[in-house]
Design brief:
- The structure holds 3 protein chains of 3 kinds.
- Chain A is α/β, with parallel strands linked by helices.
- Chain A has 5 helices and 5 strands; from the N terminus they run E-H-E-H-E-H-E-H-H-E.
- In chain A, strands 3-2-1-4-5 form a 5-stranded parallel β-sheet, sandwiched between helices.
- The longest helix of chain A is centred in the N-terminal third of the chain and has 17 residues.
- Chain B is built from 18 helices and 2 strands.
- In chain B, a hairpin with a 6-residue loop joins strand 1 and strand 2.
- Chain C is an all-alpha fold.
- Chain C has 2 domains: about 70 residues; about 70 residues, no CATH class.
- Chain C contains 5 helices and no strands.
- Chain C is flat.
- The chains are: A alpha/beta, B mainly alpha, C mainly alpha.
- The interface between B and C is large, with 74 and 80 residues.
């Protein structure tokens, strides 16, 4: 049993992670954490730094959860990476964080979350921060 | 002409709408380039060299100077906000600056860097305006033998003192001199190193060489080793400083300037040493030494000022003697050459208005930079999110465009590729790039001076020592060349001293 | 085993020494072929400096070879965007060079607009961008803009090539 969580170092991402941990414990699943970047720009604040990843790893280990952290940097966007991982690991659940958007924002941005929600083969749990 | 009136005339020229616009373009471009990783002012000026064929020299140099100073400002923004610094002279700023940013004091770090850069830049440019004419007055009295000696000294200083491997520096210099030889010999008109190719008869255009080495070579090299893992930029609001920050910063600013300018002006100086010296001094003099290593504002204020003062200092030998001591100055010198302007002491005489307009524009540019960097720093930081494929593709695109537009010859592009590959190889194997470009620029001039000297002495090699200055310089050259050998022998004769810190204290890792 | 591996590692830098030596020999041979009528006004002659440079290159070549064989290593240049922990990424560099060469071949014949497009598009592709259509559009736009910009702004007429009548 596998739970895939799309993680970013933001409040939404943290909320998603917390929820994913809860889900993984409930169903005794493996947690697969995806934090990806296109790698195109020199700076990507949505790509977690090494220290944060280590902290997360320790947090997961201390809660007795079997986990796998993947940080692909190969030019694909986040939705594609999460969907790829879900397919690869036969995920039973995907957990993602949702950002509150202004009406204009909803119009303009083709969102990562929307793509995952629509294209995933398994149930998707969308979590808001706070 | 006294300095003040020349400078005022310079301001009049620099403040015309056209030139002011170019100053703005220059500083904006310079800051952007300084912020963006992988780019630098030298590369940018090189890429713009072809455009100089269409611009007035004054306007072009005003723009270049803006790029030069702007690069310093942009570089400090990056070194404070990213956890890896840019140019080697920003390394020291990053030590304290990044720590400050991590502790939530990015705004203060950026503010002290920007204001310190402004103070240092203004004072430095003022010193430039005062010192350059003095150097010129002294230099004009020199004859060919001394010129020759000075140029050899400059070449040697850059080759043998800067950089980690003197041997590779000399190798690079040799290649540069060889490239400079291609073409027609100025005195006898014979073709050298042209291999029967008529297109090479005019020599390799310095613009093409500069673009190839600085832009294409750099782009290829970075493309081959692109940092794939993205970094984090520490978010920051508008830079500002509190009263105590001001109190702690102003003396380091002045001290940093005092360190930076002389080192920048010396042929073998560079900006790394004064920034390091400034850091160490500030640490020693600080009332809060325990903060160093965790984000001490003096550790940003001093080195930043030193950095910018050194940049101003570098322009002194460049304008007064035609001797560049860093890559950007070298490329600007190439620009002079491509305009047909002979750099050297007579520059102030023959192109006085241009030089003074340039210096005036430095003051203006400095002020502009403060204005655009202080409030707009967060915006500049956003630039870091530009996708790099577009960046490097753009460099190659504009490099090609520029090199082609020089002569509308596809052959120049072949040269661009070959020399670009050379630039790549040099970066791979640690051959410094600066001696090469200096060899290309100064080689023909040195040869000219040499021939003139011996012509004056009717073939007698003693003519090289004809002037006392020349003799003095040769002594200095001898010292520079022999120094490492003397040092090694000196160490061998003295018994090995015990290390000052015991090996197991963990303080340092000593290896022989 | 170690001496073999160090020998192999040093080999690539020996290539540099080889290049330097070859350059030196080249300069020497070329200079040798020059005529030097002795003249009072030019006692140095066109050969002297090339000989000096050639000598310098050869000496450096030899010393560098010795240095490399003894274990010396040139430090690859670092930088803000440079990650030296991996060997050179030829999969990126060679396509880049390829795009460059294509441009050289096409520029006079097919015109700047086409060759520039190929150059930019090829470069972004080589560097990893996946947005094919968007990149293509940007490439065409850039080439067109610079074509007209250089002509109108700088008076430099880039070749129109195949699109001669249209532009």
């Amino acid at each position: 049993m596998t739970v895939v969580v799309g993680y970013v170092p933001t409040p939404e991402g943290e909320a998603a992670l917390t929820q994913a941990i809860a889900e993984a414990r409930k169903s005794n699943s493996t947690l697969v954490l995806i934090n990806s970047s296109k790698g195109e720009a020199a700076v990507d604040n949505r790509f977690a730094q090494e220290g944060d990843i280590q902290d997360i790893g320790q947090r997961l280990a201390s809660q007795g959860i079997e986990y796998l952290i993947k940080r692909p940097v190969r030019g694909h966007d986040a939705a594609a990476e999460v969907l790829d991982a879900a397919e690869e690991h036969n995920a039973d659940l995907i957990v993602i964080g949702l950002r509150r958007r202004t009406p204009v924002g909803k119009l303009i941005m083709g969102s990562t979350s929307q793509r995952i929600l629509l294209e995933a083969d398994c149930p998707v749990l969308a979590v808001k921060a706070g | 002409m006294d300095v003040w009136s020349s400078l005022m005339d310079g301001f009049a020229t620099a403040l015309t709408p056209m030139n002011f616009l170019y100053a703005v373009i220059g500083v904006v471009l310079g800051t952007a380039v300084g912020v963006l990783p992988g780019l630098g002012p030298a590369m940018t000026v090189a890429l713009l060299l072809p455009v100089t064929y269409a611009l007035e020299p004054t306007s072009a140099f005003i723009m270049f100077a803006g790029i030069y100073y702007g690069g310093m400002y942009g570089g400090s923004t990056t070194s404070i906000l990213l956890n890896t610094p840019g140019e080697s002279s920003s390394v020291v700023t990053a030590i304290e600056g990044n720590k400050m940013a991590k502790a939530g004091r990015a705004a203060q770090a950026l503010a002290t860097a920007a204001i310190g850069s402004f103070v240092a830049g203004t004072i430095g440019t003022a010193l430039l305006a005062v010192c350059a004419p003095i150097v010129v007055k002294f230099a004009v009295s020199l004859g060919a033998p001394s010129y020759f000696a000075i140029m050899v000294l400059a070449l040697l200083a850059v080759t043998a003192v800067l950089g980690s491997s003197r041997l590779r520096g000399f190798a690079s210099l040799g290649l540069g001199l060889a490239i400079g030889l291609v073409g027609m010999d100025s005195v006898t008109g014979q073709r050298r190193l042209t291999f029967g190719q008529p297109l090479l008869a005019d020599g390799l255009d310095i613009v093409v060489v500069a673009v190839a080495i600085f832009a294409v070579g750099e782009a290829l090299w970075v493309a081959a080793h692109l940092r794939r893992t993205p970094l984090h930029a520490i978010p920051v609001g508008q830079p500002w400083m509190g009263k105590s920050d001001w109190k702690r910063s102003w003396k380091p600013w002045l001290r940093g300037t005092a360190f930076g300018f002389p080192f920048g002006a010396l042929p073998a100086g560079g900006a790394e040493i004064p920034t390091f010296l400034s850091y160490v001094t500030e640490k020693r003099l600080s009332k809060h030494p325990e903060e160093f290593g965790k984000g001490a504002i003096e550790g940003v204020a001093g080195p930043e000022a030193a950095n910018n003062a050194a940049a101003a200092g570098t322009l002194t030998p460049m304008l007064a003697l035609g001797l560049p001591t860093n890559a950007t100055a070298a490329v600007m010198l190439a620009a002079f050459t491509s305009y047909g302007i002979q750099p050297g002491p007579q520059l102030f005489e023959s192109q006085g208005p241009l030089v003074w307009a340039l210096i005036a524009s430095l003051f203006i540019g400095n002020t502009l930079l403060l204005l655009i960097n202080l409030p707009l720093a967060p915006m500049w930081a956003k630039l870091l999110q530009l996708p790099r494929p577009y960046l490097y593709a753009g460099i190659l695109f504009f490099a090609t465009l520029g090199a082609y537009s020089v002569n509308l010859q596809a052959f120049d592009l072949v040269i661009l590729l070959v020399l670009g590959a050379l630039g790549f190889m040099m970066r791979r194997f640690g051959l410094p790039v600066l001696p090469l470009i200096l060899g290309v620029i100064l080689g023909p001039r040195i040869e000219g001076q040499l021939r003139k000297t011996l012509q004056l002495s009717a073939g007698d090699p003693a003519g090289l020592l004809g002037e006392p200055i020349a003799v003095g310089i040769y002594v200095i050259i001898g010292l520079i060349l022999l120094w490492p050998f003397a040092y090694k022998m000196f160490r061998r004769n003295r018994p090995e001293r015990r290390p000052l810190i015991p090996a197991n204290s963990g303080a340092a890792d000593y290896s022989d | 085993m170690t001496s073999l591996t160090t020998g192999l590692k040093g080999r690539s830098e020996l290539g540099v020494a080889l290049l330097l030596g070859a350059a030196g020999v080249l300069v020497f041979l070329d200079a040798n072929g020059l005529a030097t009528p002795y003249s009072k006004s030019d006692p140095v002659g066109p050969k002297t400096v090339p000989f000096i440079v050639a000598g310098m290159l050869v000496v450096c070549a030899v010393l560098l070879a010795l240095n490399v064989l003894r274990g010396g290593k040139g430090e690859a240049e670092g930088g803000e965007d440079v990650d030296l922990t991996h060997p050179a990424d030829w999969k990126t560099v060679l396509p880049l060079a390829g795009a460059f060469i294509l441009n050289i071949l096409l520029i006079d014949w097919a015109g700047w607009v086409i060759s520039g497009t190929v150059l930019f598009w090829g470069s972004v592709l080589a560097l990893g961008s996946r947005r094919y259509v968007r990149d293509g559009l940007i490439s065409v736009a850039l080439s067109l803009l610079t074509f007209y910009g250089f002509y109108l702004g700088l008076g430099i007429a880039l070749p129109a090539g195949l699109l001669e009548g249209i532009l």
